[in-house]
Amino acid sequence: MNDMRLIERAVDMDDIKISARDVQVYYGDNHAIKDVNVDIQDKTVTAFIGPSGCGKSTFLRCLNRMNDTIDICRVEGDIHLDGEDINDKRVDPVQLRAKVGMVFQKPNPFPKSIYDNAAYGPKIHGMAKNKAELDEIVERALRRGAIWDEVKDRLDAPGTGLSGGQQQRLCIARAVATEPEVLLMDEPCSALDPIATAQVEELIDELRQNYSVVIVTHSMQQAARVSQKTAFFHLGNLVEYDETGKIFTNPEDERTESYITGRIG
Amino acid sequence: MTDATAHTTPEPGSKSSILTVDPHTAKRHAAEGRFKIYGIIAICIGLFFLAALLIAIVSNGTRAFTQTRVVLEIPLVAAEIEAAEAYIVKTSKYNDLVGEALTGAMSDAGIETEMEPKELLMMLSGSAGANFRNFVLENPDAVGGSHQFEFLASSRVDGYLKGRVTREALVDDKNLDAAHLDLVDQMREAGLVERSFNWDFIFGADASESRPEAAGIGVSMLGSFFMMLVVLAFALPIGIAASIYLEEFAPQNRFTDLIEVNIANLAAVPSIVFGILGLAVFIQVMHLPQSAPLVGGLTLTLMTLPTIVISTRASLKSVPPSIRDAALGVGASKMQAVFHHVLPLAMPGILTGTIIGLAQALGETAPLLLIGMVGFIASNPPDGLASGFLDPNSAMPAQIYEWAKRADPAYYERAWGGIIILLLFLMTMNIIAILLRRKFERRW
Amino acid sequence: MPTLWIALFALVLSVVGYALGRRRAMVSADGDIRNLHSRPNYYGVNAALTGLVPAFLVLALWTLGQPLFLQNSVSGMISDAQIEETGSLGLVMSDVRRVADGLDQAVAEGAMDAETAGNVRIDLTDVRARLGEVGVALGSAVSQETLRAAQAYRAQSSFGDLLKTIVVLGIALAGISYAVMRTNATFRARNVVESGVRWLLIAAASIAILTTVGIFLSLIFNTVEFFRLYPAGDFFFGTTWQPSFTGRGGSSQLGVLPLLWGTFYISLIALAVAVPIGLFSAIYLSEYASPRVRSVAKPLLEVLAGIPTIVYGLFALLTVGPLLLRVFGDDTVGWMQGGTAVMTAGLVMGIMLIPFVSSLSDDIINAVPQAMRDGSLGLGATHSETVRQVILPAALPGIVGAILLAASRAIGETMIVVLGAGAAARLSLNPFDAMTTVTAKIVSQLTGDSDFSSPEALVAFALGMTLFVITLGLNVLALYIVRKYREQYE
């Protein structure tokens, strides 16, 4: 397993998956995100860091239009996925979200069996022709979620009965089962203990092989460990966006430096 | 595991555009639309039922608020009246007098008929003679002159003018003939018949089964009123006391749990069971008078208590703990903190809940049937407080039930009319509750 | 109403006690309230409550207990032969009470003087006729034995009332004087009053338990009495319901099964109407409707819940019944014979239950955490897929609980079935037949009857017991499920 971690970090660094231009988000009268411009590359882990309430999660939710579900939330600006505007009238958020999957802060397995949790996405998107194919997809997803070995004997057990770390990996498996192209992760480790966190981080690194991963995190160490690119948000502004190494060793903006060194946050 | 991951890595889904909707997704959206439509249909059905109910009530009930009367000028001849008073069944003689007057009035108006006065009298309510006599007895001075009477028309005539009774329907009817209706048409043209607002329905008493035109809901309204007084006098203090104990003082123990479970269950016990309880405890054991508003009120109190306790506890709970802490902090006892600070702050919420509980009790019928508040004619309004609480009476919903049982379309009309009045009361109470809540709603 | 007067008098005493207690405290503190342990009002309230509470307690217990006591002491005077003749002790006793009341009334109206009433004899006076004059109707001629018992009943009851007055007022006085004696500046009146008030609060809270106990006792005693007169096996397993109206047992067949079937059938139809409509409304209102639509539609639907059941009963009897008859009656398919039918009652009851199901389900659907919705939507599920495959399964236990509560409502509903379902007890599968239910029969067996000694009247209590047990079971189960469900997401 260790060899997987050593895969070099620069693959297809120029292939831009998502590009956001002048994104503004308002919650009612509150201007939550201001003029954010960012390009997210394919097969890369991009980390969003910043103090609580800086808007990083809000921005993440713009990327697959999850903010549509909040009545008072209004998004302006252009976000392009593979060159297509995701806020275009013709875009079906359902199809968009199938391509841009999401994992949430708190593990939220459905109150169903482990199997049904993993099979949920493929079923609704009609990805399997028959039961055997579905079984295969579920197994593949659970393996990629690095949870297969722990649950293969009790696929019929309820997903809510797993431990926190297992639940979160199940949720990741559930998200990758639909074969998304981008995986958004909103503080996926904040509810987990250190061991589970390590497992999930390992997983993120593996996922990078096939997906563009965007992860929001509170922990700077985590950003440093898993990401290749890092964006620093502060008070709704994107302050700095660069190679992870550069952000952590040689930030350009003094706010970034203050945050990295623990003076604000 | 490494192997598995490496081998099964697929190409991420084909690079379909998100700008075009693929057929599978289109199908799913169709399902989405259908699902949404089911929801809209469900709500529309619910609202349709509501509308149907209201339309049925209004269209059937408003007719009870007007009443057809026959206007007759009757000379009060002393000799005739003395003769009638000498008779054993006095009202029948008076009836004859009314009949003569009617015949006279009709020939005056140029209406020709071969009917006997007795037959003509079928167009009037059976109470006409009694009304005549009562007037004479109350106004002895008027004898010698004449007086203009407005007699209630019989329910068939009333129904005919309201469009409820048709000539075909009278074929087998022994109370009125189709020929009468022709007369009624002519009398209406002659101005002998008029239709006016029916105050007697709102303030009057129930009448016997054969005289629906004279029945009113007023007395049973008083019965309901006295019952509500009883409910208010018992349910409010007991409900508040119980809620204060449970919310502020009760320790976490078995006894408290027992009370809570009991209250939750009582709130869902069928109302008729409370009727059985009232019958057994208040009448069988305590020998309180049957059919008395006091018994009805006590029974409804037991039924309403859980509702009031539940809403009172909710309003006590909504007073933030900081208020209690502040009072305790300046040296008030727990009891003082509750009675001086928490209770006044919770009062609007408590009153709202109480009014809603009262409204519920006001509309409740089933328990009243068991403690005997139906099946008799509440003919006189109670005189005085004690009689109001203890004399047999009916209540609005019980009176409506009674009318519905009498299987006479004229009484059905009264029942619908009674429902309009009952609903007006309930609506008023609910609006008061809503206004109270609006006015005193506090956000902490 | 002597009891009321006693209560009022005790109340007046307590007001006097309040004034005395307060004044004594002020005097012992030399008129300076700073010398008092508690505020002066507490001393007054202490005196008032110490007298009033025990007095009221004794008054209530005495008023409840006296009839029972009299019943026992007087029933000893009734011979077995008399009981045999009349049918049961209960009937004889109700005669005794009626005669006693009649004598009271005769005395009150001056038709008899008190002495005559006390020793009037059956062979010298026609008691029935004399009582008839003052408006007390007796069904049969009064036997000497009954009359004697009635006179004894009167004598003991008036003695009891006198004793009650003395005892209650004595207690009130004693309590007040004790409290006033104890009053001085250092007396901790507030603490005493507060612990007293606390007990009052506990007593008020205990009324919930008392009510349940009262329901249980009033059902169980009369039910046991019924099963003494009518075999329990025939009641629970009999398939015929045919009470004889002549009373006095023997010819009645009182099998509960047809009633249970009617109840069950009507409830089933009601749920078949209310559950889909209520559930879909709740889903639409909580998941799809805009705040404006929600703020209009939700209260409008809830209006249906605020309408009294008598209105629904009338609606069933006069609107829905005739309408159904026109559609399914003899003129068309001939399935329906009359307006009152299982279908009529079930349909209208279903309408009544719509808001019940919808607002309960609404609460329950809203209790499903937002994370579930996000999780599903984040995977690209449509809203309806999320509702059907994630939210509803998650909310299922709660919804089942809500449906059980609705079922218990339907089973216990009275007015709609009394007016809309018909009176004939029958076991039939045709939903357009008239059938009857447990609640409707409770009403018809108990209305207008004040004697609870024939099996035909007592059966109502057995029916009530059956109803109570079924609904209680459903409620307990439903509340348990709903509580478990809420705990899961808290």
Automatic annotation (TrEMBL), chain A:
Q: What is its main location?
A: membrane
Query: What is the recorded membrane topology of this protein?
Result: Peripheral membrane protein
Q: What domain of life does the native source organism fall in? A: Bacteria
**Gene Ontology biological process:** phosphate ion transmembrane transport
Record's SUPFAM superfamilies?
A: P-loop containing nucleoside triphosphate hydrolases
Indicate whether Transport appears among the record's keywords. Answer: yes
Q: InterPro entries, per this entry?
A: AAA+_ATPase, ABC_transporter-like_ATP-bd, ABC_transporter-like_CS, P-loop_NTPase, PstB-like
Q: Which UniProt keywords apply?
A: ATP-binding, Cell membrane, Membrane, Nucleotide-binding, Phosphate transport, Translocase, Transport
List, for all copies, the residue spans of the domain called ABC transporter: 18-260
Query: What are this entry's molecular-function GO terms?
Result: ATP binding; ATP hydrolysis activity; phosphate transmembrane transporter activity
A GO CC annotation given for this chain = plasma membrane
UniProt cross-references to Pfam families, sorted A to Z: ABC_tran
Q: Where is it localised?
A: Cell inner membrane
Query: PANTHER family this protein is in?
Result: ABC TRANSPORTER I FAMILY MEMBER 17
NCBIfam families, alphabetized: 3a0107s01c2
**What does this gene product do?**
Part of the ABC transporter complex PstSACB involved in phosphate import. Responsible for energy coupling to the transport system.
Q: What is this protein called?
A: Phosphate ABC transporter ATP-binding protein
Q: Which organism is it from?
A: Salibaculum griseiflavum
UniProtKB/TrEMBL annotation, chain B:
Q: Name one GO molecular function term.
A: phosphate transmembrane transporter activity
Superkingdom of this entry's organism?
Bacteria
Q: Which UniProt keywords apply?
A: Cell membrane, Membrane, Transmembrane, Transmembrane helix, Transport
Classification via InterPro entries = DUF3333, MetI-like, MetI-like_sf, Phosphate_PstA
Q: Which Gene3D superfamilies match?
A: MetI-like
> In terms of one coarse class, where is the protein primarily found?
membrane
Please list the residue ranges annotated as the ABC transmembrane type-1 domain: 221-433
- Gene Ontology cellular component annotations, sorted alphabetically: plasma membrane
Please provide the Gene Ontology terms (biological process) for this protein: phosphate ion transmembrane transport
PROSITE patterns, alphabetized: ABC_TM1
Q: Where in the cell is it found?
A: Cell inner membrane; Cell membrane
Residue segments, region Disordered = 1-21
**PANTHER family in the record, alphabetically?**
PHOSPHATE TRANSPORT SYSTEM PERMEASE PROTEIN PSTA (PTHR43470:SF5), PHOSPHATE TRANSPORT SYSTEM PERMEASE PROTEIN PSTA-RELATED (PTHR43470)
Protein's name in the database: Phosphate transport system permease protein PstA
User: What is the source species?
Assistant: Salibaculum griseiflavum
Automatic annotation (TrEMBL), chain C:
UniProt subcellular location: Cell inner membrane; Cell membrane
Q: Does the keyword Signal apply?
A: no
Identify the PROSITE patterns for this entry: ABC_TM1 (PS50928)
Give the CC-aspect GO terms. Answer: plasma membrane
What sections of the protein cross the membrane? 43-64, 162-180, 200-221, 259-285, 305-328, 340-358, 390-407, 457-482
GO MF term set = phosphate transmembrane transporter activity
A GO BP annotation: phosphate ion transport
Is Transmembrane helix among this UniProt entry's keywords?
Answer: yes
On the tree of life, the source organism's domain of life is Bacteria
- Family from the record: Belongs to the binding-protein-dependent transport system permease family. CysTW subfamily.
Function as written in the Swiss-Prot or TrEMBL entry:
Part of the binding-protein-dependent transport system for phosphate; probably responsible for the translocation of the substrate across the membrane.
Return the protein name: Phosphate transport system permease protein
Please tell me the species this chain comes from.
Salibaculum griseiflavum
Lineage of source species: Bacteria, Pseudomonadati, Pseudomonadota, Alphaproteobacteria, Rhodobacterales
